[in-house]
Specification:
Largest sheet: none
Shape: globular
Structural class: mainly alpha
Distance between the termini: 37 Å
Oligomer: single chain
Number of helices: 4
Radius of gyration: 13 Å
Strand content: under 5%
Mean pLDDT: 94
Number of strands: 0
């Protein structure tokens, strides 16, 4: 079921705030809102970034806003590259 951008923002807030902190949470959420719009432009059947792609983006950002910007752009262009990096990070964390 489709949800609105404000509801997505509310649902994402706890995870994003835990990762970026209270001072940068609004900027990170703003970027993710823009990313949803860009994703929809590239993938018209999707209203938002796919959940797994979003998880990959957040993991690869490592809580750094500048990195979040770069990784988000990479994911919108071709999320497979971000997926590979995220899977490598998950494998490192599992060790």
């Amino acid at each position: 079921m489709a949800i609105g951008s404000e509801q997505r923002r509310r649902e994402r807030r706890p995870e994003v705030e835990a990762l970026f902190g209270p001072k940068r949470v609004e900027a990170a959420l703003d970027l993710l809102h823009l990313a949803d719009m860009a994703w929809h432009d590239c993938y018209p059947n999707d209203l938002e970034i796919e959940p797994r792609v979003l998880a990959d983006i957040l993991l690869c950002s490592r809580g750094d806003l500048a990195t979040l910007i770069r990784v988000t752009l990479e994911a919108i262009i071709d999320f497979r590259d971000v997926r590979i990096t995220a899977d490598e990070l998950r494998a490192e964390q599992a060790q």
